[in-house]
Specification:
alpha/beta; single chain; 5 helices; globular; 5 strands; Rossmann fold; binds 1,3,4-trihydroxy-5-OXO-cyclohexanecarboxylic acid
Length: about 150
């Protein structure tokens, strides 16, 4: 199965950015770890990061044309604000899991609301870089379930 890993704005700075919230792993390390896990389970994983909302929308739209089976997304700050990313995820009808490194429910009030949680298969937040691994595990289970039908 084809899995697309999408990272939103400022996640290119992981490793040097607010380690109290986000840990010390770099985006490259996270991408590498997830790629190894996915490959080990017989899937392919492509990673994509952008700081630009429209580029993230374009990537999600392209995922349908590229027959992506599942999306793992950390929308970062756009998760709290972007109706466009929500609409793109609805439009492509690809199952997705939402992840956040930090516990967004325990931070500023504006981070408590996610515009994509209610349309996600599920979500993981608060485990640092492990949020991605846990999210990938959940997504792979969802995809295998779909595959069986
Ligand atoms: C984040 C949480 C968001 O509120 C924040 O804007 C980010 C990262 C996380 O992974 O914890 O950039 O998505």
């Amino acid at each position: 199965m084809k899995i697309l890993l999408v990272h939103g704005p400022n996640l290119n700075l992981l490793g040097e950015r607010e380690s109290k919230h986000y840990g010390t792993a770099t985006l490259e390390q996270i991408n590498q770890d997830l790629s190894e896990i996915a490959t080990g389970r017989g899937h392919t994983l492509e990673s994509y990061q952008s700081n630009i909302e429209g580029e993230l929308v374009n990537k999600i739209q392209e995922a349908r044309k590229q027959s992506v089976d599942g999306i793992l997304i950390n929308p970062a700050a756009y998760g709290h604000t972007s109706v466009a990313i929500r609409d793109a995820l609805i439009a492509v009808k690809i199952p997705f899991v939402e992840v956040h490194l930090s516990n967004i429910a325990a931070r500023e009030e504006f981070r408590h609301k996610s515009l994509i949680s209610d349309i996600a298969q599920g979500g993981i937040f608060g485990f640092g870089p492990d949020s991605y691994k846990l999210g990938l595990s959940g997504l792979m289970s969802v995809l295998q379930g779909i595959h069986k039908n």
